[in-house]
Design a protein that fits this description.
- It is a single chain.
- By secondary structure, the protein is mostly helical.
- The protein is built from 14 helices and 2 strands.
- The protein has a two-stranded parallel ribbon.
- Helix 2 runs parallel beside helix 5, helix 3 crosses helix 10 and helix 5 packs antiparallel against helix 6.
- The longest helix has 28 residues.
- The protein is elongated, with a radius of gyration of 25 Å.
- The chain starts with a helix and ends with a helix.
């Protein structure tokens, strides 16, 4: 943990060396991490007041990993490239990174006094003009706790996680650009506000948002949908519903024409249609059926 804290702080500080403390117009995902921090801070203090120092540390560490694995990954590209995303977008992320990292160092200082002091001396001290990280009080960041905002931000993190999982499962480099990503969300306005960040973290050239498709059809988003265009996803869902075929991940491994052919083959031989059949191509299914009939 100490090594990760040191390395993460060093990485984040690369974006903060030129940062000047000031009020900024925050982007929604930056408000999310601030609100998420305040929520964690309340639980952290509550555990301490009950002498549950281990549980307090668990809350802090969970938040820290979320900050590193999700938030920093989402915003680092716009901090790298203000000429593309704008100075205001960069400053919004800098504001959130600066204040969240500083407050986490104060908290970690209770458990890891030496490494947090070293980090502080090499980073925040010149800007804060306070002698030691251990001379600070814990403060609440200046944004209200917003349960709805936190929930929306978590959905964005889940989407990014699914994209990474899809690449990993299919042995695709995380840096490889995807032609299109299909996303189902009820929070279309919020997602528009973080679209650039999700494009950047997923190396996506285009993100097409499918609003309400899964919701209306009561279909859960699955990673194999990313193999298909939005029109294909709509068509496949309709084919499955028209033929009473359960919708599952295996379905989207096949084109709509393959799905129709498979359904026709199975029905022709009075074989119940189940999702496992779609792991095979229609040619393979036809061969299997013929082998069975011949025997």
């Amino acid at each position: 943990l100490a090594n990760k804290l040191f390395n993460a702080s060093k990485f984040v500080w690369l974006f903060l060396e030129d940062y000047k403390l000031k009020e900024v117009d925050l982007k929604p995902i930056d408000k999310w991490i601030l609100s998420k921090f305040n929520e964690m801070r309340d639980r952290f203090i509550n555990y301490f007041e009950k002498y549950e120092v281990g549980l307090a540390m668990s809350e802090l560490e969970t938040f820290f990993w979320n900050f590193c694995d999700n938030y920093i990954e989402l915003v680092k590209v716009r901090m790298y490239n203000p000429e593309i995303y704008g100075e205001e977008a960069k400053e919004s992320a800098q504001y959130a990174c600066y204040h969240v990292l500083l407050e986490m160092l104060k908290m970690f200082g209770i458990y890891l006094p030496h490494i947090t002091e070293e980090i502080y001396q090499n980073t925040f001290k010149d800007k804060e003009q306070v002698e030691s990280i251990h001379n600070f009080e814990l403060i609440e960041l200046p944004i209200k706790k917003d349960a709805d905002l936190i929930k929306k931000g978590e959905e964005v993190c889940e989407i990014v996680s699914k994209i990474r999982g899809y690449k990993t499962d299919n042995k695709i480099s995380l840096k490889t650009k995807l032609e299109k990503i299909i996303i189902s969300t009820k929070n279309i306005d919020f997602f528009k506000s973080v679209e650039d960040d999700v494009k950047a973290v997923s190396s996506a050239q285009e993100i097409e948002k499918i609003f309400r498709i899964c919701q209306v059809n009561n279909v859960k988003l699955v990673s194999s949908m990313f193999r298909r265009t939005s029109d294909e996803v709509r068509t496949i869902i309709k084919i499955c519903k028209d033929n009473n075929v359960p919708i599952s991940s295996s379905i989207f491994r096949r084109t709509s024409e393959e799905i129709k052919e498979t359904i026709y083959l199975l029905k022709e031989h009075n074989i119940p249609v189940c999702p496992s059949f779609f792991y095979k191509s229609p040619i393979e299914i036809r061969k299997t059926i013929n082998d069975i009939l011949e025997n």
